[in-house]
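Any chance you'd type out a single protein's sequence alongside its tokenized fold?
>
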Amino acid sequence: MKVKAFRAALPHTLPICVGFLFMGVSYGFLMRSKGFSILYPILMSVFIFAGSMEFITVNLLLSAFQPLYAFLLTLTVNARHLFYGVSMLERYKNTGLKKIYLIYGMCDESFTVNCSVTPPPDVDKGWFMFFVTLLNHLYWVSGTTLGAVLGTFLRFDTTGIEFVMTALFIVMFLNQWEEAKDHHPAQIGIACSLFCLLFFGGGGFILPAMALMLLCFLLEEKRTGKGRTI
């Protein structure tokens, strides 16, 4: 059962592997360039496992100690996970103890696969989602470790290296756009994001945008009388 689930999950995570390895190496290099021990990026990739927040944490660790600011910033940056979690409540039912790791290890990419892919009938859904999450976690940790090790011996200008996160999200969005038959949810997301960006500015648009998207999807579901996969 576990072997079948692993084999079913692996192909869906391979495209993510490429992006995670590249981003992880970039993150490892960045941490080492800022003078951190090799253990910092490795342990942070294992326990935080939130790519965008890990890049931001580099500056937080180098600035004055402000726990409230760090908490609010983390909540803002990762607020989308609140909406991810709500939408995955039904899928995570009856997964046993695996649910603990599924909740802990859920990232954007794992959410995308587990939310949109239906495993084969002979594959246990819980183990399929577990291996999707575990593989993505391992890719990120491996890339970070490699970057941290290489960063010990190599030195180069890391200015702008944080853009790899933005680049990955753009690629994933374009890939989902090409695969999806209905582009209405994506159009709603773009419109809500642009509206909130103009209204709230670049520093505070994420939470309002996510809330507005959720409201729009709920209204759309009520209007059409059927659920929609976000």
Notes: The longest helix spans residues 2-33. The mean pLDDT is 84. DSSP finds eleven helices and no strands in the chain.
